[in-house]
Request: fold
Amino acid sequence: MKAIGLYRYLPIEDEHSLVDVYVDRPQTSSRDLLVAVQAISVNPVDTKVRAPKPGDTSREEKARILGWDAAGEVLAVGAEVEHYAVGDRVYYAGDITRPGSYCQMQPVDERIVGRMPKSLDYQQAAALPLTGLTAWEALFDRLEISPRGDDAGKSILIIGGAGGVGSIAVQLASKLAGLKVIASASRTRSGIWVKRMGARHLVNHRNDLHRELRDLYIESVDYILCLNDTDQHWRAMASAIAPQGKICSIVDNKEPLQLNLLKSKSATFSWEFMFTRAMYQTPDMIRQQEILNEISRLIDRGKLTTTVNQVMEPINAANLREAHRLVEGGRTIGKIVLSGWE
Reply:
């Protein structure tokens, strides 16, 4: 089958960083679905895994297949599969410890797969799984915000509101949880996008965020979701969080975080990593299936909207290299999706 893979970890400008390959039909386990991939989207995790690492000159013997966002049709099911049948239309982010979605057929554990929204096509659905799961887990599991509206009226600062995760997090926080959303955006276009997603106020994360909030007469916020440079914004977050407030980040830090800045406020800090449940086979792994199915219901009821903002056709190495280049540039709005095979 056709796939796009890598043998060496190279800068995206190198034409060998991602290459068109043919690989064998994948083997499946008893809990797996075999999915015919129709559309994929690109996330920062894709570029981070692909990028060269200092001092690492390793070479893969077999092409490594990346990609952790897909929508497609179930071709086959394992003996222990309970929730899906051949022909079902599904979407999922997958498992970072297994080969990814840059291929025509992919095995994926049914417990982390959701039914596609009935109102969306494959392109629109492929934009949602990784970012939807990340935003949902960050807001409702890590920050412990009520998805039923019990915390309605409280405030949240979402740093990096126009990206893939930000675009769905703004919607979930405003339209589902009923929070007052202050989102950061550094350009006019991204600000317009974030407002469209449901943000009430805008701040610029290129400036001092706490000062930006004070300019809006907002002294503190109940929650902060950091999707852009934890190191850069740490002091501003510690300053802006309300007493007994909660902060969550999805962005790795490079410098030690001074957690003592949160002590006097009894504030909470947590990480969100969407792959945790699949990576560690946690007992609640099937929760991701449930979340994706709930997102589908919200999409079909018109409560949420897809975050796709650019579609490339077909799925091949050249288009994926361009998508990686755009994502690495850090100026994308919403999600970039690729669909169709040559």
